[in-house]
Amino acid sequence: MQKNVNFHEMLQQAIKLENINEELENLKIIFSELISSSLNDNEKLNIYYEINLILTSLLEQTNRSIEEKIEIKNLMNIMMNNLEVQEFMYRIADEETNQIQEVRSLSINYKASRIGRAYITQRAEQQQQQQQQYTENQILILNVDICQEQQIQFYDNNYSQQSKEEQSLIQSPPSKRYIEIAQDELSELINRSKYEFDQTKIDQAYEYAKLAQDKFKSDINYQQYAEYVDQIIVQYNYMFDNVKELDSDGWIFDGQSNGISVKYKFPENTSTASMLMETKIPVNAIRVLALVNEMDLNYLWVPFCKRTYVNKVLNRACKVCTSEMYFPLIPDRECVFVGEGYDRLSVNGTITLLSRSVDSDKEFLEKNGIFIPEKSKFIRMYIKYYIFEITPIDKDSCSIRACTNVNPKISMVPNSVLAYIGRKFAHILIQKIVNFAKTFEKSPFYPVYLEHIEFYNWLEEKLKNHLKY
């Protein structure tokens, strides 16, 4: 414990140095001594992140020269690629995933933020002493920035949310019969497309919309439907392109346990890893779907998830949500995503769910009346895709395939470590879904399922018609 205290004192001394070269040299010495010290893995990781936070703060200062920034980045790369660092990250990942139920908020986030606050405050005081000619207004602005920086890890975001009543109303089952009467072929095609989309059948909605576009694009009456047609075509193409990933080449087999297979691969020109999970379970497909659909409870099966809430339900098969995550090794994250569900039973025998990040999709957010601040108190992850495909086998069994590609926005953890954590994450995630599905009526999901029983009965009817039971 004494050595841990000494490292903190050394860091405090280092950040007081005014010369950047001296500061970097001191940080390099501290890192070297840290690696060879007798501290345990978690203590080393705490100090590692404190050094990294100081370097990140130095790198973000606007008065740094290009040469100074290169030196800072070089030290960050030396730290990240150190074999001992990678080894203790692997060991901690093992420990954390073995105790995943208890993982919520790690001490490294608090300690890293604590040293960061001290660093920012000291820098502000130095600037005030060195630049007395600044006006009081300029100093006030600086202090406000510092306060905002200090709060970044300690408060939950509270984005706008629909009421539960409004969400339930939008998700209520649609009419079972097509009753629209159109006056011409164009409006008939659009009406049928909208009806199929209302039934969550994207493939059929696309067919009618595409036919309307191909036959009537030059018709003067087509323009009133053009936006809808374009929306359906974009949604279908996005779904189709991403679902192909489930059957793509290049997957590396990671392992199989309890009938659950996990594979992974590294997509070209990215710093991410994709995961593919497959299994068969003796559970009704709609109950599995309920586990994934009830976002308020997905913290029970998504590893490291603190909470998820629905920002807005757009239609019965589409909702925008926010998840807050507490990972081992790194500060807290969040993701703002849209989740869509499609009935593809008559196309390939599946029910397909697809999610992607939308926090930077300003056009999508504005169009749907959703406000998400550009800056968050958490670091925002990027979900390129999360695909969850359920294939009903019979009334009481189904197969599952899930595929993910997520960029957690981490600069100081090697890709090999991220992939390792991702594979463990994948095993745990699918195992939890299987366990809850097998004990569904005794799980926390069952009361919520009963609250929305009309919606799930509607889905069950789809299953009955498909499987003929």
Can you identify the CATH class of the largest domain? Answer: Alpha Beta
Helix content: 40-55%
Rg computed from alpha carbons, rounded to a whole number of angstroms: 26 Å
Order of helices and strands: HHHHHHHHHHHEEEHEEEHEHEEEHHH
Main sheet properties: 10 strands, mixed
Shape: globular
> What structural class results from the helix and strand content?
alpha+beta
Distance between the termini: 66 Å
Number of strands: 10
Low-confidence stretches: 99-121, 131-155
Q: What fraction of the residues are assigned to beta strands by DSSP?
A: 15-25%
CATH architectural category of the largest domain = 2-Layer Sandwich
CATH topology-level name of the largest domain: Alpha-D-Glucose-1,6-Bisphosphate, Chain A, domain 4
Tally of helical segments: 17
The chain-level mean pLDDT equals: 80
Which helices and strands, and how do they pair?
Blueprint: H1 2-15, H2 20-35, H3 41-60, H4 66-80, H5 83-98, H6 107-130, H7 136-150, H8 164-170, H9 185-198, H10 202-216, H11 223-243, E1 252-257, E2 260-265, E3 274-281, H12 285-293, E4 305-315, E5 318-325, E6 333-344, H13 345-348, E7 350-357, H14 362-367, E8 379-380, E9 382-394, E10 397-407, H15 415-438, H16 445-451, H17 453-467
Parallel strand pairs: 6-8
Antiparallel strand pairs: 1-2, 2-3, 3-10, 4-5, 5-6, 6-7, 7-9, 9-10
Helix pairs in contact: 1-2, 1-3, 2-3, 2-4, 3-4, 3-5, 3-6, 5-15, 6-7, 9-10, 10-11, 12-15, 12-17
Coiled coil: 7-37
Protein name: START domain-containing protein
Keywords: Coiled coil
